[in-house]
Every structure is written in structure tokens, then in C-alpha cells.
Write a structure and sequence with these properties.
Blueprint (H helix, E strand, L loop, with lengths): L1 H26 L15 H26 L2 H6 L4 H32 L1 H5 L3 H26 L9 H8 L6 H5 L3 H16 L47
Length: 241
């Protein structure tokens, strides 16, 4: 089981993430959208969406720093273990609370606003289950480290993750981690595999073409002129003689 979970499942999840995204882009471009429901309700959306996205940005940044940067690198720049863990726990708790709180508010809005709920698909419901599970277990793990027994994940989880890039996964390291880390990582991998087939795929969208679009010409209407009063034509409106 350890070999499958920590040696095979990560590659299966990433494989589905990449192949699913390519398939979605080629065969479902019109479905590549967040299916925005702002038209139905905007008050709660204006609160929940920024909380979720800003919090998620810091959650992702924290995972990148904590999992991909070795402890020797942070020590080399003068950050000792005590300082690192204090900062990681403080920022992790704040980011986790913001992200989870924003997600709960978005789910509450979707459930209590009639038109938004009617526009919710089964696919969306499955997505929300995995999002709540991933963020919930991650926040719980952070709180356990903050107020319970502190565990140095940079001695097991981080080296295991980096070993995946060499295609020689050290499954024994991940097997030594506490149960809450096993649960969180497993749910996160399943979420990665599910991501291309949900509205979360919009995370890979960047409006690059917008930077090169032609200028749009807007023409104003002068409402102060009375009926039958002509106004001088601009250069592009003249037809010539």
C-alpha cells in the first residue's frame, strides 16, 4: 500500500492532470470556463471569492517554500529551525483560515441562493467535497502542529516530494509521517487528478491574447442636442465627396 500511495499514485495523479488538461483544451474549449454566477448574486461573492483566492495564493506559496526548498537552504540564509517553524505556523494558520473561510462562504452562497444552486452540477458538488477535504485536512494538520505535538515535515514529507522529481520516490520517508499528513497528501493528489474535469481548470487560463487585441473605438452619443440637430462628423465617419 505504501508503494502504491507514495510511489505510484503521485505519477498517476500528475499524468491525469496533464493529459486531462490537454484533452479538455482540445475538445472542450467552450466548456473551459468558471461558469460565473455573479449575475445571480454578487454581495457574498465579492467577499468569499477574494478571501478564497488570496488565501489560496499564500497556501500554495507556503507549500512551495516548505516542500521544495531544503532546510539547508533556509539555514544558509540565516533562518534557523525555530524561526522557520514559527513563521510557517503563523502564516499557515492565517492563510488556511482565509482560504477555508472563503470556501465555506462560497458554498453557503451556492446552497442558499436559488439560481446559483440550480446552476450547480454534480461535477461541482464532487469538486467542492474534495476542496473542503483538502483544505480542511491541511488546516487541521497546521493547527495540530501549532497547538499540539510539533512535527518536522521537512525531514520526511519534503524529501519524499523532491524524490518524485528524480523518478526514484523514497516511499519509506512518507510512510514515516503522521496519519494526518497521509490523509492530506492523498486527498490533494486525488484533487489534482480531478482538476482538469472541473471548473478549477480555469486556473491554467491566462489572458495572453488580450495583450495583443486591437483597440476598440467607442462612439459617444450627445444627448444634449435636440432632435434633428446634426453634429459634425469625425474623420472616420466621413464618406468623402
Amino acid at each position: 500500500m505504501n508503494t502504491f500511495l507514495w510511489g505510484a499514485l503521485p505519477y498517476l495523479a500528475i499524468g491525469l492532470l496533464i493529459s486531462g488538461t490537454i484533452w479538455r483544451y482540445r475538445y472542450d474549449r467552450f466548456g473551459w470556463t468558471t461558469r460565473s454566477s455573479e449575475l445571480y448574486e454578487s454581495r457574498l461573492l465579492r467577499i468569499g471569492s477574494p478571501l478564497f483566492h488570496i488565501g489560496l495564493f499564500f497556501v500554495i506559496a507556503g507549500h512551495v517554500i516548505g516542500l521544495l526548498i531544503p532546510a539547508s537552504w533556509t539555514a544558509a540564509v540565516g533562518v534557523n529551525e525555530a524561526t522557520y517553524h514559527a513563521l510557517a505556523l503563523a502564516l499557515g494558520v492565517v492563510a488556511g483560515v482565509l482560504t477555508f473561510g472563503g470556501l465555506v462562504l462560497l458554498i453557503w452562497r451556492r446552497r442558499t441562493t436559488g439560481p446559483v444552486f440550480l446552476a450547480t452540477t454534480r461535477n461541482d458538488k464532487v469538486m467542492y467535497v474534495f476542496l473542503v477535504a483538502a483544505l480542511g485536512t491541511g488546516l487541521a494538520t497546521t493547527l495540530i502542529n501549532a497547538f499540539g505535538a510539533t512535527y518536522d515535515y521537512r525531514t520526511t514529507v519534503s524529501p519524499w516530494l523532491r524524490s518524485l522529481f528524480t523518478f526514484l520516490p523514497d516511499t519509506g520517508l512518507m510512510a514515516e509521517a503522521p496519519t494526518e499528513y497521509h490523509l492530506h497528501v492523498t486527498i490533494a493528489l486525488l484533487l489534482f487528478a480531478l482538476l482538469p474535469f472541473t471548473r478549477l481548470v480555469h486556473a491554467f487560463t491566462a489572458p495572453v491574447a488580450y495583450l495583443f487585441r486591437p483597440y476598440l473605438v467607442y462612439r459617444s452619443r450627445d444627448v444634449t442636442r435636440g432632435p434633428g440637430t446634426a453634429r459634425p462628423r469625425r474623420g472616420w465617419e466621413r464618406t468623402g465627396s
